[in-house]
Recover the amino acids of this structure.
């Protein structure tokens, strides 16, 4: 048996500390406790710690409250505020935030603070496992810092987290792969032993490669979405249906079916931050990340495209009343970070529209903190009363199944702009609405919008090589 396999066979129950109880940290802490380990979750925010101790997750993540309570009841999870005097943990997972700072660089203050505070209280043989998404080279910096703060023996392993909000527990328990990067092969094997029961393929590599795998993965997925969004604009001018195009592409296993949904673009706490950070790192080191720049620009353009569709259909945005469905950056989360829905709502407000936002889980305080002038409405039909248009921006299940007849009865104009392509065009049109979406053809008999010439866009059929001009949609 290899030395590494010995390590993996040995670890049954470990003492683990998880620093940072945000989305990643809380899921990781609860899942490790569920797997039978003794876990200390640490956070500097007193209110957050109090909520977690009482079994209430401060973040909305399906299944997390139940998992957290189970972990607390089992006695395997304790939650600590601030820095403990001593930590018995052999593994210290860093899951602190690395928000974007100016120019796309990541703000590493929380990582530095955590290492500064913890290095003096750790066991000499502890392994620092970094889960936070950090610029390439940060793992080396952490090792240098640990040395500086009197813990020269500490090993550092990079273990990027790939969990998605909304399916985070399943992503942790059934990962596609586990990536572990370190120059210390023994430490890497000790961490590998923790993940062995999950049965996932392991990528054992060096620190910088592991850090790069995380960025490259997110940048690739964001690129895939921007690619399909660019295809959707081409579909619009040539009269093809992007949903069918994506379906047809997805059967090819080399392409795959996922991340091919066209819409108002990507957002969230990871894609925008990570693509910008990778672009920034690459530029800083003298590389020319041209593709990444276009991927970001296409994503910005998607917001403007939605705005253009509403403006085109209504003639103007000035004074028009618009209901935006969705505030979260995607369904099944209350996270509004870099939410395309709120960015579109904000842009429409700036263009003079009277905008209301409706979301089943997001609270007004969260929206006000980021967009002070955007108002959230609790009830769909009350909010829709007198609206000139409804923009579907986040595909919550309740928005996919809208009460169209009731909406038609209360809205001033019957216009739905489907920014996620989730409604059935025929059903929406059948209920008397004008329907716009992203990259799908207009239908015969579509009710005319209030704007002149909306179906009669000039299309140069000679250049495009298509038979009949298609209306803008
Ligand atoms: C992402 C990565 O998937 C995850 O591996 C990483 O750990 C964190 O970042 P998450 O931020 O939860 O996860 O969002 P994800 O589900 O990947 O969606 C990102 C954005 O892309 C969302 O705004 C979503 O609406 C958009 N998207 C996704 C599309 O517009 N079309 C698609 O086909 C897929």
């Amino acid at each position: 048996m290899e030395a590494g396999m010995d390590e993996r066979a040995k670890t049954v129950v470990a003492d683990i500390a998880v620093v940072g109880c945000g989305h990643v940290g809380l899921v990781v802490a609860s899942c490790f406790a569920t797997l039978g380990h003794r876990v200390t979750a640490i956070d500097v925010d007193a209110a957050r710690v109090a909520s977690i101790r009482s079994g209430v997750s401060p973040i909305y993540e399906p299944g997390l409250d139940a998992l957290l309570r189970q972990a607390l009841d089992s006695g395997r999870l304790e939650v600590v505020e601030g820095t403990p005097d001593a930590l018995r943990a052999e593994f210290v997972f860093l899951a602190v935030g690395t928000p974007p700072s100016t120019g796309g660089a990541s703000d590493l203050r929380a990582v530095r603070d955590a290492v500064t505070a913890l290095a003096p209280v750790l066991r000499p043989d502890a392994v620092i496992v970094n889960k936070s998404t950090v610029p390439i080279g940060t793992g080396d910096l952490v090792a240098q810092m640990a040395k500086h703060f009197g813990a020269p023996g500490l090993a550092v392993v990079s273990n990027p987290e790939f969990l998605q909000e909304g399916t985070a527990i399943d992503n942790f328990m059934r990962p596609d792969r586990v990536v572990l990067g370190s120059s210390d092969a023994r430490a890497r094997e000790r961490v590998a032993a923790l993940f062995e029961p999950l049965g996932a393929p392991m990528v054992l590599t060096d620190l910088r490669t592991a850090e790069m795998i995380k960025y490259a993965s997110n940048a690739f997925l964001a690129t895939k979405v921007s690619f399909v969004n660019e295809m959707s604009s081409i579909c619009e001018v040539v009269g093809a249906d992007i949903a069918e195009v994506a379906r047809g592409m997805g059967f090819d296993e080399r392409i795959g079916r996922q991340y091919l949904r066209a819409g108002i673009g990507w957002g969230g706490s990871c894609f925008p931050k990570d693509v910008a950070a990778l672009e920034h790192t690459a530029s800083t080191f003298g590389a020319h990340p041209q593709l990444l720049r276009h991927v970001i620009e296409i994503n910005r353009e998607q917001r403007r495209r939605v705005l253009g569709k509403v403006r085109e259909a209504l003639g103007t945005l000035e004074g028009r009343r618009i209901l935006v469905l969705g505030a979260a950056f995607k369904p099944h989360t209350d996270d509004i970070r870099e939410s395309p829905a709120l960015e579109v709502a904000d842009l429409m407000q700036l263009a003079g529209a009277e905008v209301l936002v409706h979301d089943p889980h997001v609270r007004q305080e969260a929206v006000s903190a980021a967009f002070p002038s955007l108002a959230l409405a609790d009830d769909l039909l009350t909010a829709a009363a007198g609206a000139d248009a409804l923009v579907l921006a986040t595909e919550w299940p309740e928005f996919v199944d809208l009460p169209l007849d009731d909406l038609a009865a209360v809205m001033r104009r019957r216009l739905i702009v489907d920014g996620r392509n989730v409604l059935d065009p025929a059903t929406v049109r059948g209920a008397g609405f004008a329907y716009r979406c992203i990259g799908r053809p207009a239908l015969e008999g579509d009710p005319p919008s209030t704007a002149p010439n909306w179906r009669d866009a000039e299309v140069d059929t000679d250049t495009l090589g298509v038979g009949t001009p298609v209306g803008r949609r």
In short: Residues 207-238 form the longest helix (32 residues).
